[in-house]
Every structure is written in structure tokens, then in C-alpha cells.
Amino acid sequence: MGAATPTVAETARSLSRPALRQRVSEAAVVLFNPLTYVQVPNLVYLALAAAVYALSFPCEVAPSSDPSDLGDTGRPGAVAVGSLRAVWPVTVLFRNLAVGIAVYSAWHHVLYVNRIAKTKFNPQIPQPSQHTRDQRWTIAGLGVGTLFEVVLTAAYGCGVWPVAPQPEGMMTWGLWFAAVWLVACFWSDVHFYLVHRAIHPWGWKLPLIGDPGYLLYTRVHYLHHRSPNPGPWAGLAMHPIEHVLYFSRSLMVLVIPCHPIHMLFINLRAMIGPAPVPPRMRLQVTMALRNTGALSFIICTMQSFRATTGRAVPLTKCLVPIATPTRPG
Questions:
Q1: 234-261 burial string, b = 16+ CB within 10 Å, else e?
Q2: pTM, whole model, 2 decimals?
């Protein structure tokens, strides 16, 4: 047994004020730099969301010539265009299943058929029982993601979303669209970290239920940790309750004025984004293990992940390690 990994608080206390300030500032430079999010994967998800919107989004809200006309949306100056047909949710489910299965299968093929899995710590193909279980829960997750998309699209058609600014020129509209997209990228990572942290032990107890994080871990999140050799299909293999928490990031559109493409981007990124993440490359983990302090881990993991995959991950790998207790029974 090695020495226990220091907690965030212990690491912070061990640093001098200048060293702590420097590490926090280094992390902030990465976390709040817009260029951190302008990466190929995010651009691919954005293009996919735009294609889905153009080809299959069932309704839109268009400007009305009469500002007092609330139409069917409840929004001044807007009317609903299009309608939701009963068969539409089924087509969304089949589309998301097709895209998700294709992406996860492709990554599995690249890792284990083309044999670049040698860059993993464990290059072996996952056991059939684990692989089947991961596939089953990932497909269930695609269904939960579809549910969020269907409900939020219906809410959009009913005018529940906050009013988005009407374009006064392509430049103005483009700047607004890009700004909200960057917020969506940032929020997706923040939300992932907050949810993931909440379903691990909190370190303090409440009356009657004890440690809420320990309860969530041993009853919900344990399922995600049942894959000792994670492959692409393990990324979204979660308990349904965790799926709901995970996909709730897309509820951002009910608070911030967004275009439907933003919602589709957040949801599609959540559905297929985990595919390349679980089989993280050797450099990332090796560099991380050399820096057990949590604040060091933030900078190191982001830099090593970028060096290995060409993709920056500002918050989803931050503020670790997180305790992973054994599930009783």
C-alpha cells in the first residue's frame, strides 16, 4: 500500500501562498481561456448539431410582424413554425442510437482491431461480460439523452425557453451565437465536475442518511466503476439516475437564451463525447501520478491530455483524486 494521496485541502495547506496563487492562476488561465474550448472535438460536435438542426429539427420560432402577437409560443413578436408529430420522438431515438452506436463501435474498432490499444495501460480487450454490460448501459444512456432532447424541443416549440435575441445583422448574431457556444462548452465541463464530485463521498454526514456522496456512490455511481478495463463503451455506462444527472446539463437552455443548435450541441456532446475518454493514453495517467497534489493534477492532466489527444479538458479531470469506496455487499 502506498502513501495516501493528499486531499485538496492538505495540498493547499502544504503550499506557500505564492506557490498556491501561481497554481490557481495557471489553472484559471486554462479554464477561462476561450481558446481552450475551440478544439477539433467541440467543433465536430457543433457541426453535427447544426446538421441535425438543419435536417431534422421539427419546429422553429420565427419573428412575427406583429410584436403584440404571442402566437402559440407565449413570446412577444414570435410565432411557432412546424409541429411535433407523434412519430417524431421515435425518429429522434433511432437517430441518436445510430449515431451513438456508430461512434462507440468505431472507437472500439480503432482501439482493439487496429491495435492502438497498446497505448493504454491495459491493452487487453475488455472481457465479454464487461463489454456486454457496458454496451447495455450505454445504449440506455442514449435513450435518456434522447428523452432530454425530446422534452426540451417540445418546450422550445411551446415558447418555454428564454427569448433569444433576433438577429440585427449576421455579425451581431454570429458573435452572440459563438459566445453562447463557449458558455455551453464551459458549462458542460463545470456541470460534469459538479455531478461527478457530488456522487463521491463528501467527507461529512447529514442526520439519518450519513454522507450523501457515499450513499450516491454505493447506490448509483458504483455501476460506472464496475469496468476494471474501461474501453469506449464504458464512458456512458452508468446507472439511470446518474444518466439523468449527467444529461441535466442541457437544462442550461431554460436559463440562458440559446439557439436550438446549442441544446443539440450540449446533448450530442454528452452522448458521444465519452467514447474517446475512458481509454486515456499512457502519458496522461503517468504524468498525473507523478503529481499527486490536486492543484498540480489540474494543470498536469490538462496539459498531458492535450499533448496526447490534441484536446483540452479544462474541468472534467480537475480536482481529483476523489475517494472511491467499496460498495457494501
A1: bbbbbbeebbebbbebbebbeeeebbbb
A2: 0.76
